[in-house]
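User: Earlier you gave me the apo prediction for this protein. Now I'd like the version with coenzyme A bound, so I can compare the two side by side. Same sequence as before, with the ligand SMILES added.
Assistant: Got it. Here's the input I'm using:
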Amino acid sequence: MIIRRLQTSDLGAIERIERRSYPTPWSRSMFAAELAKPSSICLGAFDAKAGLVAYLIISRYVDAWHVMNVAVEPEHRGRGIATLLFDRLFELTAADRRRGYTLEVRVSNTAAIRLYERLGFTSRGIRRGYYTDNREDALVMWRDPLARAVGA
Ligand SMILES: CC(C)(COP(=O)(O)OP(=O)(O)OC[C@H]1O[C@@H](n2cnc3c(N)ncnc32)[C@H](O)[C@@H]1OP(=O)(O)O)[C@@H](O)C(=O)NCCC(=O)NCCS
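And here is the structure of the complex with coenzyme A:
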């Protein structure tokens, strides 16, 4: 598995994974905007045979790195690929000791919540009705700058 920064030429593959991963997927132009932002880090995981199989998009804000999007091609889930992407991200941002990491996740998304907890994120609160498609609540999670993954 190779991890590298995403490029405009990856947009087609990103879109295919996105549509298979979310009930209300991001549009191509939302990804293109993230790719163009100097304050965003957009990483892709590439399999020798399948090409792009996962991506992670994170944006730098004043007080924290905000996880904007993470998805793994359904056939490639449960193999540690999301973990690999986050490990690379934590490496790339390790020098930034002032900023922690934050994200929102659907309260029903137990697979993702388990993954984030294993990576050292903890729950910090609930945003009621955050998701406009079904009014589902979001769990707000936070990871301190120097947190270590559980068990690491
Ligand atoms: C959430 C998501 C990104 C996780 O990606 P993933 O690559 O499957 O995550 P990982 O493989 O790193 O971790 C998932 C599980 O696989 C297990 N795993 C990791 N490496 C493994 C390996 N080599 N063999 C078997 N299992 C392994 C992990 O222990 C983990 O199990 P646990 O979380 O139950 O403890 C993926 O399910 C997804 O794309 N979902 C749809 C989009 C989504 O919901 N995104 C999050 C929105 S907030």
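For your comparison, keep in mind: The radius of gyration is 15 Å.
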